[in-house]
Amino acid sequence: MNDTAYRIQQTALKLFTDYGFEGTSLSDIAKEVGIKTPSIYAHYSSKEQLFLRLVEDVIVEEREKWMTHTDSLRTEPTEQLNAKRQLRRLFDFYTDFAGMSIGQAFLKRVMLAPPRGLEERLRQHILQYEEKITDDLHKLLRAVSEETGAPPVDLNRQVAVIYALIDGLLVEVQLYDAKTHRQRVEAVWEWLWNGIMRGD
């Protein structure tokens, strides 16, 4: 990717995150980059193509960030690296909205309010990404059951609950101050963990 294409992407990412797909025009992006609008077409055939490319890149970025995060766990003492701790790390990774990169903030906005006309294509990208997260969750939930002796859970049902809780916390981060939201995150985690231990 050349420098202009990179600057177009980074500028578009910021503007789409701040103002949404409908609230951002190619001329807005061109003005911020310091080029004329037709120059964008040398790199992207349409605003839709640019937007979808950003979604693809951000999904890869978030997955790589999570893999780097899990790799860092391997440096911790074995006695501390149990399944509960790993599951909590995953939960924290997806509920640390204050520490989100701009790419993660963009992806969350896309998930909450997909642009009209792009819903189906976005759904496919996000569901493919979700499959990878689901695989991670299945492994962790099985490991929790094995390590703690908790009753086996319906993995798909439990994963659906986890997604619903994370999505709910994402909505709530817009409503509450940081301290209140953190208290809610902790309450949700406690409820989730107790449910897993009961086999709910």
UniProtKB/TrEMBL annotation:
Superkingdom as given in the UniProt entry: Bacteria
Gene3D superfamilies linked: Homeodomain-like (1.10.10.60), Tetracycline Repressor, domain 2 (1.10.357.10)
InterPro entries in UniProt: Homeodomain-like_sf, HTH-type_TetR-like_transc_reg, HTH_TetR, Tet_transcr_reg_TetR-rel_C_sf
Keywords: DNA-binding, Transcription, Transcription regulation
Domain HTH tetR-type positions: 2-62
Residue ranges for the DNA-binding region feature of this UniProt entry: 25-44
Protein name, per record: TetR/AcrR family transcriptional regulator
Lineage: Bacteria, Bacillati, Bacillota, Bacilli, Bacillales
